[in-house]
UniProtKB/TrEMBL annotation:
Membrane topology: Multi-pass membrane protein
Organism of provenance: Pedobacter zeae
Name under which the protein is recorded: histidine kinase
Molecular functions per Gene Ontology: ATP binding; phosphorelay response regulator activity; phosphorelay sensor kinase activity; protein kinase activator activity
Cellular compartments per GO CC: membrane
Top class in the EC scheme: transferase
Keyword Transferase: yes
Length: 358
């Protein structure tokens, strides 16, 4: 029956655009691989049959250790495994997704599986994530830029009411009331738009893929620095390594970072410091968001992640809080099987800590 299955597997491989292979781990050689497999690796089939280790030379140096650990994991566990690695060619990268099965047969052990070139899909996903990340940041910046003038207009109209009332000019009084009402309704609209967008995003299930956390965080900080809000603050990003790879739903996790930075902006004065740092530990990665703002009062700290109304407070310039941000942050971190906590002291500042498994 094994021979028949192998024949069907090979016949299917000969017709497929994806790579198909059977690898004998005892003899360290391929028993079968289709032409598509060799094409994906940009090698000839004879080259791979003659020297299987030639495949390692095509793997991106940053992914080589990861690829070797995947191979060892396949040998240790007899169940389906899915992996992603990059190949490196002159001036370009190629992304591969592999599905591998360990198949014991008598004293032998085979690895059988498929390889798919996901470069185009991966680049599209990265592009979409960048767009979504910038959209969330832009919404925050836009909300701030709209709230401030609308709030000032409402305040100005309120201050004029007393003087206009003394004149008895009902037309002017009605006009002021209209201005106040219009400002209030548009402030509520902006607040509702932000909350609805974040709630909608947080309710979608996460889809984790291997990502370079350093690249993602640096891109977020770069965008904030260019924005009006960022120019009024000293925003810095640091990391313990040039690349830190882990499994993330980048689109969701960047929403966490955006929300934390947005909150830091609200509660840190002009020219204040906001720091974002990524630290690679043995089995986890620690991300911190630090500011030297006004801090979180002790009485508000216990319910910060629980949507409690008493924990809501306006920013230094009157920015309102929808009350959903911290709950969403906690939910997304939990979905990544991570932990989040914070330390804060009134008048000194706040640091949020997020620890994620590798």
């Amino acid at each position: 029956m094994i021979e028949l299955n192998n024949e069907l597997f090979c016949a299917l491989g000969d017709l497929s655009a994806d790579g198909y292979f059977i690898f004998d781990t005892q003899q360290q050689k391929f028993l079968y691989l289709n032409k598509s497999f060799a094409d994906i690796w940009e090698l000839e089939t004879d080259q791979i049959f003659d020297d299987p280790l030639i495949l390692l030379k095509q793997i991106h140096p940053e992914d080589l250790e990861h690829a070797i650990s995947c191979y060892e994991e396949c040998l240790a566990e007899s169940k389906e495994k899915k992996y992603e690695v990059r190949l490196l060619f002159t001036g370009r990268e190629k992304y591969l997704r592999m599905i591998v099965f360990a198949l014991p047969h008598h004293a032998d052990r085979y690895l059988i599986g498929t390889v798919e070139d996901t470069t185009v899909a991966r680049h599209n996903k990265i592009h979409i994530e960048q767009i979504n990340s910038r959209k969330n940041i832009t919404l925050e910046v836009l909300a701030h830029d709209l709230k401030e003038p609308l709030g000032m207009m409402k305040l100005t109209a309120s201050s004029m009411e007393g003087s206009i009332a003394q004149t008895g000019d009902k037309r002017m009084m009605n006009s002021l009331a209209f201005i106040k009402d219009l400002c209030e309704r548009n402030l509520l609209l902006v607040k509702s738009m932000i909350n609805r967008e974040f709630l909608k995003s947080s309710n979608i299930e996460i889809d984790k893929e291997r990502a370079d956390l350093v690249w993602e965080l640096r891109d977020v900080v770069r965008f904030y620095r260019r924005s009006k809000l960022g120019k009024a603050k000293n925003i810095r990003f640091t990391s313990s390594a040039e690349q830190i790879y882990l499994n993330l739903d980048s689109m969701k996790f960047l929403q966490v970072i955006n929300n934390l930075i947005s909150n830091a902006l609200k509660f840190t004065g002009d020219h204040g410091y906001i720091g974002l740092h990524a630290e690679e530990l043995e089995n986890t990665v620690l991300i911190t968001v630090t500011d030297d703002g006004i801090g979180i009062p002790e009485e508000l700290q216990p319910g910060l992640f629980d949507h409690l109304p008493e924990t809501l407070r306006p920013g230094l310039k009157g920015e309102e809080s929808g009350g959903f941000g911290m709950g969403i942050i906690k939910a997304i971190v939990d979905l990544h099987r991570g932990k989040i906590w914070f330390k804060s002291k009134t008048g000194v500042g706040t640091t949020f800590y997020i620890e994620l498994p590798k």
